[in-house]
Amino acid sequence: MSFDVSGSDYDRFMGPYARELAPAFADFAGVSEGRVLDVGCGSGILTEELARRVGEENVAAVDPSPMLETCRARVPGADVRTAAAEDLPWPDGTLDAALAQLVLHFLDDPQVGLAEMGRVVRPGGVVAASSWNFPRMPLLRTFWELARELVPTAPGETQYFETLEELEAPARDAGLDEIETAPLDVTRRYESFAELWSTFELGVGPAGEFYGSLPPESRSAIRDGYRERLGDPEGAVEVPGQAWAVRGRVPT
Ligand SMILES: C[S@@+](CC[C@H](N)C(=O)[O-])C[C@H]1O[C@@H](n2cnc3c(N)ncnc32)[C@H](O)[C@@H]1O
Fold it and tell me: From the CB of 18, is ligand 1 less than 6 Å away?
């Protein structure tokens, strides 16, 4: 899978975005107390934010990837388990909230994951998810635009959500009540284009995995095109990103 990587490599590729997103997303979900689950926790960036709010002993986290070890080290007092969003190892209604940050677009059926999150949360508790607004996530969008232009074998579609409706509909279909949505903005500063590009070379996520599968001439073509689209920057580069967040309550 494209997250068969170390937590430290993930942190270099996506960490600063996830770290800025985490408190805004936890605020949006209204997390300030209770027992909270981080679904698809990866290296534990959101897990750590949740622990700051409710205490490590009140945080649970799951992920199917090896990044989980970094999450365990980051939040040693949390209940961290290897599992998938679609089959969570907790009984019905035993948590106060379940959050999934940058995960839903990797599920075969987001509705199934959200319904399972709703199953383990008590009636009246919160289920929330955030995912990139792909048209406004240039780090990834530019990569895939160039990949499609330059590499005939590039996948025709990304897994990412292209519209807010694509994120909101599965929450509704999963049976959640009081559904709300919000855009959440983040920005990452790279000291140079070389720093930015080195993060694609780590093989993280679908973009890094696809990039790593290409012959050197295709990699160079994508890198050079990417640099040109950024305006051939000489110094630091700032790349903004926007996530959409959706939250709902388990019916009482
Ligand atoms: C972009 S990372 C996000 C990690 C973390 N939530 C964060 O915000 O940094 C996507 C995560 O989704 C996880 N994932 C993929 N498929 C999953 C599934 N079926 N159930 C739970 N997590 C999954 C991956 O292993 C990876 O850790």
Answer: yes
